Amino acid sequence: MATKRRQTLRVAMVGHAFMGRAHANAMRQAGRFFELPFDVELAVVVGRDLARAAAAAAKLGFAEGSRDLDAVLARDDIDLVDVATPNDSHAPVAMAALRAGKHVLCEKPLALSSQEAVAMAKLARASGRRVGLWHNYRRCPAASLAERIVRRGDIGRVRHVRATYLQDWLSSADVEASWRTESKRCGSGAHGDLNAHLIDMTRFLTGLEFVEVSAIAATFTKSRPTGTGKRRRVDVDDALAFLTRFDNGALGTFEASRVAPGRKNHNRIEINGETGTVVWNLERMNELELFRFEGDEDTRGFRTIMCMDESHPYAANWWPDGHLLGYEHTFVNTFAEFVKSLRGRGRFRPDFDDGVAVQRVLDAASKSARSRRWTKVG
Amino acid sequence: MATKRRQTLRVAMVGHAFMGRAHANAMRQAGRFFELPFDVELAVVVGRDLARAAAAAAKLGFAEGSRDLDAVLARDDIDLVDVATPNDSHAPVAMAALRAGKHVLCEKPLALSSQEAVAMAKLARASGRRVGLWHNYRRCPAASLAERIVRRGDIGRVRHVRATYLQDWLSSADVEASWRTESKRCGSGAHGDLNAHLIDMTRFLTGLEFVEVSAIAATFTKSRPTGTGKRRRVDVDDALAFLTRFDNGALGTFEASRVAPGRKNHNRIEINGETGTVVWNLERMNELELFRFEGDEDTRGFRTIMCMDESHPYAANWWPDGHLLGYEHTFVNTFAEFVKSLRGRGRFRPDFDDGVAVQRVLDAASKSARSRRWTKVG
Amino acid sequence: MATKRRQTLRVAMVGHAFMGRAHANAMRQAGRFFELPFDVELAVVVGRDLARAAAAAAKLGFAEGSRDLDAVLARDDIDLVDVATPNDSHAPVAMAALRAGKHVLCEKPLALSSQEAVAMAKLARASGRRVGLWHNYRRCPAASLAERIVRRGDIGRVRHVRATYLQDWLSSADVEASWRTESKRCGSGAHGDLNAHLIDMTRFLTGLEFVEVSAIAATFTKSRPTGTGKRRRVDVDDALAFLTRFDNGALGTFEASRVAPGRKNHNRIEINGETGTVVWNLERMNELELFRFEGDEDTRGFRTIMCMDESHPYAANWWPDGHLLGYEHTFVNTFAEFVKSLRGRGRFRPDFDDGVAVQRVLDAASKSARSRRWTKVG
Amino acid sequence: MATKRRQTLRVAMVGHAFMGRAHANAMRQAGRFFELPFDVELAVVVGRDLARAAAAAAKLGFAEGSRDLDAVLARDDIDLVDVATPNDSHAPVAMAALRAGKHVLCEKPLALSSQEAVAMAKLARASGRRVGLWHNYRRCPAASLAERIVRRGDIGRVRHVRATYLQDWLSSADVEASWRTESKRCGSGAHGDLNAHLIDMTRFLTGLEFVEVSAIAATFTKSRPTGTGKRRRVDVDDALAFLTRFDNGALGTFEASRVAPGRKNHNRIEINGETGTVVWNLERMNELELFRFEGDEDTRGFRTIMCMDESHPYAANWWPDGHLLGYEHTFVNTFAEFVKSLRGRGRFRPDFDDGVAVQRVLDAASKSARSRRWTKVG
């Protein structure tokens, strides 16, 4: 059997904490469940400590570990650099990789500010390399289905977006400080972490752009223990909510919080159109709720669609009808699409321009929360 | 304004405990929300104790109390006798009322046995009077809607009925004995009380008849305190489950229990047809769940219909769209239909023949639980 | 039996449309289910048209109809005036009644503006009469339970209020114009109608006061058919959302809309405290959701409390455990409490001062939506 | 770093359809998420066709394909044989592997009959090899949690088991015949396929044994198209329901159906104990419902536990708190436990003795459905 040998795509991953584990899993699994134009080879994990990078490489299925990013970027055989580091190094790592001629996949948020994001997007366009952002929830089958439903007009012109991303892990004042409670490391708190998802998802689902925002933020716990008996001031928000008007005149309410007891990953978006409503919620990520004014009046109601039949996005790549997917599959689906895009000519979405768009909304909301004024986006 | 004066319907109610309160409320309210062919006059409450009957009459809106049923039945001006007593007196009271030429509405279950029920139905037919049974849940709007949906063929030929009526008030062995734990007074336990509802509702929703049953029963708490420091043996079931085959070949599973912690009034019926499913549950009595194989494959799912828009049964009699009804409304709807039927020629359902049909299934299941054999109904 | 005869409370009701029907039902039913210090006598219905007022009186159980409010107010035997008219006549009717020395129960919203509301509250205080507002949802058992839970500290200090009142009846541009789409008659659209409920309920549940708001409004359908072939301009909002900060530093998001397909009476409030969360939703008004950080870590979760056991507010007045209540019961509970308050010395809540507080928040939000600025309440 | 090199566990997998894909995934992933005592090496896939076996090996990550089971079993370097073939070859393959001295993991159901199962279990015990059955749902975190809850006594003595496994893929008479509708290949229909899961799960969750059963079965579609224009008779059940009594006196109702529209993988078990209830449902496999009589009476209710915090079984092996798992993870968890058991001395559960126990209940129910009698298990 004279099969033409597929090319190999060699990947270097920078960072190997939670996100690195999720990315690595996606890289290992994509070729098992999707037909890809390349064999994916997990070449090297880059970290700040060699021993830990090597251990991560072994655990995650990479050939080796390294602490020398420059040396890795200088290697001819590396095709793709995956950025899985904390937020403050997204820009330097991604830009170095682009300059070294690599394709780049970057964890969200793209950057700590719009300015930084714009520079990255500009460089990406100039580089001719393929870039992508890990807004993985776009490839949750139920979310992809929601996008299909909205785009084909099933709910009509959009009038309301109602988006909340609620967690509860900072509810107690006893939870310790971390890089996530320090603005220097993460930019902002719940806002940058959680609203970033809501904003990207809204743009994806509706195709609308945010025009202006009015925001309010709060930090309920002013300082947190450090683990060494001291306390460190918290300089990021626990919660940030904002109102928005979209370019078609629709209204939006957005809210991110890490102090909503009982909410674990309540990343929920409700979209009301003129003729119907869809609701997606990460906490029940295999389901989509849909209402439409249609059919017999006496049988209308919200339906719960279990998004795992072959008619649903990505479902056919996985298991037979009726078998659930989990969190990690959104990464696998994303990676598979990205690898496929390397052969195609179209744009992979979300790319750095999408990252810029998200960042601009985040920045406008941050600014509005400080200035207490309606603030234009962009 | 020379409106022709409507006739008056005078009602005597026998019994004034929980069911009496619900019936009386229905009688007071029906004319406020329905156009009735008669003015309903609450004439007399009959009880075993005159003072208590008089107090009940005052509280419930009747003109007077009485302890003399015979005298009340002898009154020419009484048109309708409502039977709201414990199970063991349904037959004697209802039959006396029929013999006295009264219309009769009787609380369920019709009787303590099929034989008794048959005698009542026979007398009812001979009497020419209108009779009805208070299987009030038929007139829950969501249940009436379910019947409409099944009857118009929306879910196709019925294949499965899955019915459970679960409560939890006898879970603890510390709950005291009462007439409901004494077979002499109530016939059976969860079975007669709860399965009676499931059986009537299934006949109503599907139009099917039960052919044969195989049952199992259990009494988990063998004796209960009496309140006087003693214990009394429990000789009724805590739970009874049965399998059945219907006359069209469909399968049914039925289960009644008073020892299912967390279930308060979990009177739930799921019907699977060839092309769809409906689910009704008294604990969410304003909703109906419906699934159909129809429309786009990728948007199929169970829908939750909120049964309170003007397209829904009885909804227009009550409040504007979107306002919930409660338990008592099922009685009001039932009473209104019964009063309307007094002017019409059709049969009011459920009547005593329906009561016989229910009783035959109950009896067959009781017998099967004892004999441990499949038992024919009827 | 020498029972001391209870006094009689004679009621005149002004208005007899939807709200009049609900109020009248409450007046008829309260004494059947509550021990009241007065016999309630439904004396007269006042309307603009005598024949219709008389027909309403007959239907609703009042002794007579009238079109002469002044004459009714001049009657010595009338104790209580119930205001069930459209919004623009609340102030004149209620104030005339107070001046005539009557107790007053007034449909919400109290007034069309804060100024009007303040004048009413001032007069009420000066009059020495008892006044109340029909914010009936406070007496939904699940809402009363939520208040009990929050007040006894079960969820800790409140940090977030997330409130939405969504309906869908104006989604289609084909729905005709009415007094509800005309600012002169109703003040505002979804805002005054629906946010009024959310604001009152939030004050009730949390005891917090609104400090400042930032709002956005939209009217998606600019004109509507009149039924005569013409179209009338819509000058009220279809939707209004606002952010708020409370006096304890908590954040709130509020949103009212009549164009959210599938939402019928989605009056939902989520309150996140430091140690727990409660969620109340009118569409499932017999249930309350509660989360607490407590007990074994591995069994924590949102619980759904069915609010109809004898431990729950008002449940014991109605039916045995496990039987649902509906929309109208919130009015009956309210009326019963009001009548009881006539004998007591405490304040009936909500009263006109509560109405003022609600109106001030409504006004601030309306103003903010126009000015596009954060606006202080009060 | 002189780490002692771990031993390698070499696996041969027989069969490579749906179940083979799920098993292979588990073998690839287990070592990435669990600390295992062996390195797992995917050595060979055995199939009936060499080219297809080789392609499967490549796709699934095995070193090679083979069509010669005997040769594979003769290899010294194969440690574990995984049986992923249709039901009728479980016994011959597993027994040949045991005779060749291999450990064996076998897809469920263990066999086509009790006799066959008993022979397998006997051989397994004699062999001294480790055997396991892929009843993967036991290792769904929510199911493992349910078992923990029941075993630690949180719901008290079990009184009711209410189990349904409902699917809808055979609802239409147009669905084609397959090995799953042919008794020779699969033993029975919905019964063997779906009730097997319910029975194993019930034994796992409760520790109870089934004493006797009364069953009813139905085949609604008597013949199905073959794809070649002909129709083949269906000789397996579409649905089978049975009643049971457990060894502690508890009652059970069990029902499997492939003709329940809208139900995809409705594998749901409700267990009522004396003091509480748990409900597990594969369609919401990341959640567990729990009710307990405990704490304040007014806050009791069913709670929905999201089973993905570190306090929950297996959760710590996967992602941080609040991130969902899917179907395939139940296989990974199972495989990891099996591999760990190879080093330990305890029994791996479920093993072939568990398989025998399940098969005995299945057989008794099949027999009861034919004989129409209560039938002892075993």
Structure in words:
The structure is a homotetramer of 378-residue chains. Chain A has 378 residues and is of the alpha/beta class. Helix content of chain A is 33%, strand content 26%. In chain A, the strands form three sheets. In chain A, strands 16-15-14-13-7-12-11-8-17 form a nine-stranded mixed β-sheet. In chain A, a hairpin with a 5-residue loop joins β14 and β15. Chains B and C meet through α1, α2 and α9 of B and α1, α2 and α9 of C. β16 of chain A pairs antiparallel with β16 of chain B.
Q: What's the layout of helices and strands?
A:
The structure is a homotetramer of 378-residue chains.
Chain A: E1 7-14, H1 18-33, E2 38-46, H2 50-60, E3 64-66, H3 69-74, E4 80-83, H4 90-99, E5 103-106, H5 114-127, E6 131-133, H6 141-151, E7 158-166, H7 183-186, H8 190-206, E8 210-218, E9 223-225, E10 231-233, E11 239-246, E12 251-257, E13 266-273, E14 276-281, E15 287-292, E16 302-306, H9 327-341, H10 352-371, E17 375-376
Parallel strand pairs in A: 1-2, 1-4, 2-3, 4-5, 5-6, 7-12
Antiparallel strand pairs in A: 7-13, 8-11, 8-17, 9-10, 11-12, 13-14, 14-15, 15-16
